[in-house]
Design brief:
CATH class of the largest domain: Alpha Beta
Strand content: 15-25%
Order of helices and strands: HHEHHHHEHEHEEHEEEHEE
Radius of gyration: 18 Å
CATH superfamily of the largest domain: Vaccinia Virus protein VP39
Largest sheet: 10 strands, mixed
Number of helices: 10
Number of domains: 2
CATH architecture of the largest domain: 3-Layer(aba) Sandwich
Low-confidence stretches: 1-13, 84-89
Shape: globular
Number of strands: 10
Structural class: alpha/beta
CATH topology of the largest domain: Rossmann fold
C-alpha cells in the first residue's frame, strides 16, 4: 500500500476500524502482526524470534525525518504533542495527552523553581526537552537523555542543548526530575531499572506510557513497527499495574497521580487488552 493511500485511509476510517483491520491482517501474514504476545516469555522470545532491538539506525533515521515538523508544532499555538516517536502526527488525542501529562509532571517537579535538572531515560531524540521549552520558556533546564547509541548520535546533532548518554554514566549524579516515557517496558529487568531510576531521583519520578493490564499477570509482547519505517522489531512487557505499583512502593516511592495517555494497541494473543498509563511519584527522602 502506498504512503498516500495509507494516509487517506487513516483520515477516512475510524481508528477502531483501522486497528481491527490491522489485527485481522496480522492473522494472515506474520509480517503484518505489528503487536503479538510472546507466551514463552522474554528469553524464549529472543531465542525463537528475529528481534533486532532499539539500537537500529533505521529507527533513529525514521524518527529524525519528522524533526522539523515536530519543532514547528511545539513552537506554535496549536495543540502540543505533534509527534509520537516517529509515528505520523494526525492530531489525535494520544500525543496531545502525552505532552500534557508530561507538562503536568514537569510543573509538579519544578514547584515554582526557575531551574531544574532532568533525566529522560529512553528519551529518543530529546523530544520532551523541546516540549518543555515550548510550554515553559522561563524554566532553565539541565537536560540529560539516556538512549541507545543510534539515537544518541542522531539526537546530539539535532538537539545540541541536550546531553546524551549512551552508557551508564547518567548514574553518576542525581536529578530533580527523572522520567521514563514509553521506555521502561522495553527492558527485560524492568524492576531493576525502576530501582536505578529511583536512586538517581532527588525529587520526582515519572513513569509514563507504560502498557498496563489490570487483571492478568505481566506478559511479554513483540512489536514489529515496519509501517513507520523502523526496519527492526523489539520485545516489551505489558505490566500488571499492581505489580508495578508494588515495586515502586517497596522503593519508597509515593504515588502522587495516575494518568492515562490513551494508547491501547491490539495485541494478538494477549490475555487481556492493555492501556498505556502514567504514574507520577514523589521520591523517598
Amino acid at each position: 500500500m502506498s504512503p498516500g493511500l495509507r494516509r487517506r485511509l487513516k483520515y477516512l476510517l475510524p481508528p477502531a476500524l483501522l486497528d481491527a483491520g490491522r489485527f485481522l491482517a496480522g492473522r494472515l501474514n506474520p509480517r503484518w502482526r505489528e503487536w503479538e504476545a510472546v507466551p514463552g516469555g522474554w528469553r524464549q522470545g529472543e531465542a525463537a524470534l528475529r528481534v533486532r532491538g532499539w539500537n537500529a539506525r533505521s529507527a533513529a533515521e525514521a524518527t529524525a525525518r519528522g524533526w522539523s515538523d515536530f519543532l514547528a508544532s511545539v513552537g506554535s499555538p496549536h495543540p502540543p504533542g505533534g509527534w509520537s516517536d516517529g509515528l505520523e502526527s494526525d492530531g489525535s488525542v494520544v500525543p496531545h495527552n502525552t505532552a500534557l501529562a508530561f507538562a503536568y509532571a514537569l510543573a509538579f517537579a519544578a514547584g515554582g523553581r526557575r531551574e531544574l535538572s532532568v533525566l529522560d531515560w529512553g528519551g529518543s531524540l530529546g523530544h520532551h526537552y523541546q516540549v518543555a521549552r515550548g510550554l515553559f520558556p522561563d524554566l532553565a533546564l539541565d537536560y540529560h537523555c539516556a538512549e541507545v547509541e543510534a539515537f544518541c548520535e542522531r539526537g546530539a546533532a539535532l538537539n545540541p542543548d541536550v546531553r546524551f548518554h549512551s552508557g551508564d554514566d547518567w548514574k553518576a549524579r542525581r536529578y530533580d526530575f527523572v522520567m521514563a516515557s514509553c521506555s521502561l517496558h522495553y527492558v527485560e529487568d524492568w524492576a531493576r531499572l525502576v530501582a536505578d531510576l529511583a536512586a538517581a531521583c532527588s525529587g520526582t519520578l515519572f513513569l509514563t506510557r507504560v502498557p498496563c493490564v489490570l487483571h492478568a499477570p505481566s506478559f511479554v509482547q513483540i512489536q514489529r513497527p515496519y509501517r513507520y519505517g523502523f526496519d527492526t522489531e523489539y520485545l516489551g512487557w505489558c505490566l500488571n499495574r499492581d505489580a508495578l505499583l508494588e515495586r515502586c512502593r517497596g522503593l519508597g516511592l509515593a504515588l502522587e497521580r495516575e494518568l492515562v495517555t490513551g494508547e491501547a494497541p491490539p495485541i494478538l494473543g494477549a490475555p487481556e487488552p492493555c492501556v498505556y498509563r502514567g504514574f507520577l511519584f514523589r521520591a523517598a527522602p
